[in-house]
Structures are given as C-alpha cells and as structure tokens.
Design goal:
Strands 1-2 form a two-stranded antiparallel ribbon. Helix 1 packs across helix 4 and helix 3 crosses helix 4. By secondary structure, the chain is mainly α. It has 4 helices and 2 strands. The chain is globular.
C-alpha cells in the first residue's frame, strides 16, 4: 500500500494497489470498482449492496471503499468508464 494512505482510517481495508483493477479489499481481492458499481446500481442503498454479498462484505468494509472513492474518485471512475466501453 502506498505510504501516503497509512494515515487514513480506511487503509486497513485496502490491499496493495493493482494496476489492472485498482484498489482491492484486503484478503478478499475484491476490486473497489465492483462495490462502487453495485452501490451506484443500488442508488446509494448500502443495505442492498451488502445483501448481494450475503455477509462476505461488511458494512465497515463498504464504508471504507466509499470513503476511498470520495477522496480518490478518479481511481474508480476511470475503471468504471473502461468497463462501460465493453
């Protein structure tokens, strides 16, 4: 993980940045863009997003992903844009 992320509360949930998929949830290898995409599809309803993962993703993990996204939207938006082009 980049050193400049260590002071963020959400850093404990972030695995090293993968240049193909971007940031991922630690130990689960789930790319952040996947959760952000589901969050958008659910129109911001966190409960719907979490229900789709049936306990595999915690609310705190989702909050961490969204906090990262709020701070660094370009990291996720770029990947989402690429995925929409397929």
């Amino acid at each position: 993980m980049a050193l400049y992320y260590r002071d963020r509360w959400w850093a404990k949930y972030m695995e090293d940045y993968d240049y193909d998929d971007g940031p991922r949830l630690r130990e689960k290898k789930l790319p952040y863009w996947v959760l952000v995409s589901r969050y958008r599809l659910a129109k911001g309803d966190k409960d719907k997003v979490l229900a789709g993962w049936q306990g595999w993703v915690s609310r705190e993990e989702l909050d961490a992903v969204l906090a990262y996204y709020e701070e660094f939207p370009e990291d996720i938006d770029g990947k989402l844009w690429k995925m929409e082009q397929y």
